[in-house]
Amino acid sequence: MKKNYLGVLAFGMALLLAGCGIGLGLAPRSSYDTYHPKPYRDYWIKSSMTEEGRKVDWIACGGDADGGTSMHVQKMLSNETKETSRLRQTSELKACLSQRGYRYESD
Q1: 95 exposed, middle or buried (CB, 10 Å; 0-12, 13-18, 19+)?
Q2: How far apart (Å, rounded) are the C-alpha atoms in residues 94 and 80?
Q3: What is the pTM of this model?
Q4: CA dist., res. 89 & res. 71, Å (int)
Q5: φ, ψ (nearest 5 deg) of residue 61
Q6: CA pair distance 72, 65, nearest whole angstrom
Q7: Are 79 and 22 in contact (CB under 8 A)?
Q8: What Cα–Cα distance (Å) separates residue 22 from each residue in 25, 33, 38, 68?
Q9: Domain edges within the chain
Q10: SS3 of 104, please?
Q11: How do residues 57-105 score in pLDDT, each as one tens digit?
């Protein structure tokens, strides 16, 4: 009876600890990427461009310092809704980056 109890206990502990594999960094890379996405800035590629140069160009074109985009209220025109302003500003960001030689590459 004691052997059976220890066997069930050992099996239960092994099963319990096996569930911790994802938290120990043993998850596949795709799972990590799902929970830690790259900033939008990092999808814009230009040959022979350094990371620092890309950040400078990104901010100069109207992107946020963290690599994302957000609607800048101060750039909103009087006849625009928030959505049309966001779309216009995003379009301007894309055009600026394209003029500087960047191209968008999704994963």
Answers
A1: exposed
A2: 19
A3: 0.65
A4: 7
A5: -85, -5
A6: 13
A7: no
A8: 6, 13, 20, 28
A9: 1-37, 38-107
A10: strand
A11: 999 999 999 998 887 777 888 899 988 988 999 999 999 999 999 999 9
